Amino acid sequence: SSVSVAREYIKKYYETYPEVQEYMDKNVAFAEEHGYITTILNRRRYFSDINSTNKTLKAFASRAVRNMPLQGSSADIIKVAMVGVYRRLKDEGLKSKLILQVHDELIIDALISVADNTPSIYDFFSSRYFFLSIIILQSKRNINPTNATKASSDKNIKAPSVQRSIGTAKM
Q: What angle do CA 4, 24, 158 make, to 5 degrees?
């Protein structure tokens, strides 16, 4: 069945990357003791049900605790990038607008006459914010840089991307 295939996949994943299971277990233990967990930028999320006597509520909170630091940190990184892209567009006087964020992508609406400057903004931010996030993760979680590089290439982790949408809308 697909459930047994999924269980086997997860089992093999944790066998290959036992540090992931350890990391998640430590987060659950921390949340059980303190009632919250944090992102890499120290944004807290509280979990009132993490110590619930109701097993269903506790299991849901435990799953959320396992996901929150990674998903929340991803959100932190893209938010920082959004502010930086907005400021860079404004500072350079580009007639472009940051119009949309979808997961790890920033969509910029740019006039044709200024669209060619968008790749330089991408290069500027992808190098700074992505590598900054790796450094923060390494220092907070004491990750060996070699393993972090291997993990990022294994999982196709990428920097927040900036795409350009060329149009003629007035800015």
A: 90
